[in-house]
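Dear colleagues,

As part of the handover before I leave the project, I'm documenting each prediction I ran so the next person doesn't have to rerun anything. This entry is a single chain, and its sequence is reproduced below.
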Amino acid sequence: MPSDQAPATVGASEQIEYCYERGWTDGLPVVPATRPLVDAMLEAGGLKPDTVIASMPSRKVAVTAEKVAINAVMAGCRPEYMPVVAAAVKALATPEFGLHHVASALSGPTIVIVVNGPIAKQLGINATNNVFGPGVRANMTIGRALRLVLLNCLKYRPGISDRATMGTPGKLTCCIAENEDNHPWEPWHVERGFRPEQSTVTLLAACTMIQAWTYGDHEQLLRAIGDALSYLGSIAILGRTPGAVVLGGEHAEVLRASGWSKKQIRDFVVAHTGRSIAELKRTGRLDGAVTDDDAKAVHYAMDTPADLMLVCAGSSIGPLSMVLPGFGSSKTAGRSPTILIEGAGGV
């Protein structure tokens, strides 16, 4: 994206069209990034314009704070969202995330931003009702800002370097906060080694989102989740990339009542992601004729239970959780980095 913003001497509608003409939008109108708005974004983030937020050797580019601020303005962010956006951009550059594999994959994964810590409430990032849906500015615009950075700074353009066959609506924007109130276990960022008073961003690459509905006990619930993580058409089942489960309130309470630890839950779920080699061959996922031994040989959707991310979010009403299988293209990519949000307190 060029360093100059849309010209400020014309009206807003003309500036919006100017952005469309230059391919700077995700298909929706953007907020014209005037100098005062960009400066306010940088000031709120405590950043100088030429500060490098992330270096991306695979794209031969260094993303500066000014570029991030421009895209955050265009996405409709408030200035106070800038530290979260900057942390999400930093997470894109981590080796374990493997950005190019994720951003160019045929599976067209959604990049989910999960925010933890006090900043989520400070900014009003939704963690409860309709958590993956519309209606909350912080969720919608923070996720959109990351997508615009991918488009404008890193040049992941649909049909060119972004080679998604189908894509998902989540590629426009996907940002949630974990619901840490009355949590059955320690929140995700604490599990990752951060203090409760610190705030973090975690990125997750998900090939799709599947709602799991069950009124069953904890073992019945976890069997259903294991099945959703390993459905036979899943691109992730062969790649065995990390996945996630976002537990709604009723399901979190079922698991709380069970007394099971996160480790027990992970072990049980992954043990129930197995599909027989016979099933995989019959559905064309593996080549070759089905042999007598194939019915007993089992392939699991994850290499290790540690690859399953467990967080709590969504409404307290309804026996629903969201299952997010991994993006499936590479075992060495799509792993979820957790980045401290600088300037968010608790550092």
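The mean pLDDT is 93. Residues 208-326 form one domain.

All the best with the project,
I.
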